Amino acid sequence: MSNSFIRLFATFFYMGYFPIASGTFASVLGMGLAYLVRDNPFGYSFCLAVLVGVGFLTSGKMEKNEGHRDPSCVVIDEVAGALVAFFLLPFRWPVILTTFFLYRALDMFKICGIAKIEKRAGSLGIMGDDLLAGLYTNVIMQVALRLAGYY
């Protein structure tokens, strides 16, 4: 696998080089991608599987290329985590905003085992913390929406 391919996908088409809050912008892109495939669970799952697979293939190699753990230019993890966070949730403004901010908060504050996964070197550390933050977000939102009578 060429370094150009690794860089292209690990940085999610160079979004990782955005000068300010590249992870947040990548999460917005993930939210937008989730919106585009929201009505097709198979397509959504396929898109998520491809992103997770490519993320695991490229992020650890990018870490080695950059010479330090979890380089900030690697943002495919935020895109994949956002897709997990929004999976099977209704795209209504209150849900979108709450899900987005909850996902970003869990990703930043690293609670409930997220920090432990992030400490792992390579692709598991890079991808794992965002995927777990996305999973926690999705579970919290699914439960909250059901308790609120949204479904």
Order of helices and strands: HHHHHHH
Quaternary organization: single chain
Beta fraction of the residues? under 5%
Largest sheet: none
Strand pairing plus helix content: what structural class?
mainly alpha
**Separation of the first and last Cα atoms:** 45 Å
Helix content: over 70%
Number of strands: 0
Determine Rg (CA atoms, Å).
Answer: 15 Å
Counting DSSP H or I runs of 4 or more residues, the number of helices is: 7
Mean pLDDT: 95
Into how many domains do the coordinates divide?
Answer: 1
Poorly predicted runs are: none
Shape: globular
Quick synopsis:
It contains seven helices and no strands. It has helices spanning 3-10, 22-37, 41-66, 76-86, 93-109, 114-118, 122-147.
Describe this structure in words.
This protein has 151 residues and is mainly α. The chain has one domain (20-147). The protein has 7 helices and no strands. The protein has helices at residues 3-10, 22-37, 41-66, 76-86, 93-109, 114-118, 122-147. Helix 3 runs antiparallel to helix 4. The longest helix is centred in the middle third of the chain and has 26 residues, at 41-66. The termini are far apart.
